[in-house]
Amino acid sequence: MDRKVPRYDNKLSQLENQLKELHGKGKQEIRIRIEQVKEELRKSYEQEVKDDMPRALITYLLDDTTVWWFREELPRKEDARTEVYMPIAQTLIIDEPGKFCDGLDFRPDFSRLPSSDWFAFQVDFELLTPWYSKDDRLFHLLDNPVRKDRVFGVPFMAASSWKGMLRWACRMQAGLREHLERHNGKLDGWRDPDWILHLFGNVKGEGEEFSQGGLVFYPTWFNKIGFEVINPHSRERRAGTQPIYYEVVPPGAKGRLSLLYAPWPGMKPKAKAEEVLPKLLAAIEALLTTYGISAKRTAGWGTAEITKWRAFHKIGGYVEKDDCAALWREVQNWLSRRGTS
C-alpha cells in the first residue's frame, strides 16, 4: 500500500500533465494510457484475491482500499472505491451460496424430519430490485456496506431478519394496516391473533408469559453483490452534491428462504397446521413479491420473483412446485395421511 498508491499517483499525474499540453490524436492516446494505468492497478489486486470472496470483501482487498480511503496522506482516495474495490467486488459470484467448501455446508438438510407434525419449506427467489441490509463493520470505504458473514465474506440475510419481516407480513394479513389507519399509525391496542403467536411466539417483556413460536428460521446466503448510487440534489443549484454509494445484492441475484414448522406437544397457543400453514405460505408470497425484504423497502427495494417452492415431511417426503397453490395441495395430502402412518 505505501508504495503501490504513490506509484499509481505518480504515473497518473505525469499522464495528466501531458494531457494538458497535447491536442487531437495525441490527447486520445494519453486518455487510453490513463485507463491502462487504472486497469493495471485493478489487475494487481485481482491477482491477490483470485475470486476469493473472504479475501476480497472482508480482508485483503477491503482492508487495503479502506486504509487508502482513510489515510490523509494518500492521494486519489475516490479511486480506492471506483477504480479498485467496486469493480472487483461486483465480479465475484458464488455457485452454491451457503456451501463454502467440501464438508462445510451451512444449508439446512430437511431430508430426515423426526416428527410427522413437522413441516419444512424452502422458497427459491430471484431479486427484481436491490436488497440491502447495513453491515456492522466499523471501518469501510463505503458509507453503506451490505451485511456479510464475518468469516466467509458472503452477503446474507440473518434468520432474525426473516422472522421479523415475516411476522410483520402475517400481521398485515391479519389486519395490521387497518389498525394503524384507525390509530394514527400507532400499535396501541394491537394484539397478535393466536395463529401468529403460535407461529412466532411473543416478545420478552410484553407483559405476558414468554412463549416460543413453532417456526425456526435459517439465514439466506446470496450469490453476488453490486452497487447503487444515490446523488442528492441541491435545491438551489438543482445539481448533484456528493454521491452516496450503497453496496447491495443486485437484481438478478438468487436466494433461498428456509424455515421449519416444528410445533411441540402442549405448546400454547395451540393451532391446527391446516389452518396456520396456508396463512404462512400466503404471507411468504406477499412478503417476497409485494412488500419486499430489504431495508429501504419503502423505496421498492427487496422485491423478488419466486422461482420454486419446496416442502419436506416425514411421511410425504419431498415435493417441488412452481407455485404456492400447487405446493399447498400436496401438503394437504400429507396432513390427511398423518394419522394413518
Q: Can you count the beta strands?
A: 11
What's the overall average pLDDT, rounded? Answer: 91
- Overall spatial form: elongated
* Cross-sheet strand order for the largest sheet: 5-9-3-10-11
Strand content: 15-25%
Q: Helix tally?
A: 10
Helix content: 25-40%
Cα Rg: 25 Å
Span of the ends, CA to CA? 66 Å
Broad structural category:
alpha+beta
Task: Please tag this protein with its features.
single chain, 2 domains, five-stranded antiparallel sheet, alpha+beta, elongated
Can you walk me through this structure?
This protein has helices at residues 4-21, 25-49, 53-57, 60-70, 77-89, 159-173, 176-182, 194-200, 273-291, 324-337, and strands at residues 99-101, 104-105, 119-127, 156-157, 215-217, 220-221, 226-230, 244-248, 254-261, 304-313, 317-321. It is built from ten helices and eleven strands. The strands form four sheets. The protein has a five-stranded antiparallel beta sheet, with helices on one face. Strands 1-2 form a two-stranded antiparallel ribbon. Strand 1 and strand 2 (104-105) form a beta hairpin.
Summarize the structure.
With 341 residues, the protein is an alpha+beta fold. It is 39% helix and 16% strand.
Secondary structure layout plus pairing:
Elements: H1 4-21, H2 25-49, H3 53-57, H4 60-70, H5 77-89, E1 99-101, E2 104-105, E3 119-127, E4 156-157, H6 159-173, H7 176-182, H8 194-200, E5 215-217, E6 220-221, E7 226-230, E8 244-248, E9 254-261, H9 273-291, E10 304-313, E11 317-321, H10 324-337
Antiparallel strand pairs: 1-2, 3-9, 3-10, 4-6, 5-9, 7-8, 10-11
Helix pairs in contact: 1-2, 2-5, 4-5, 6-9, 9-10
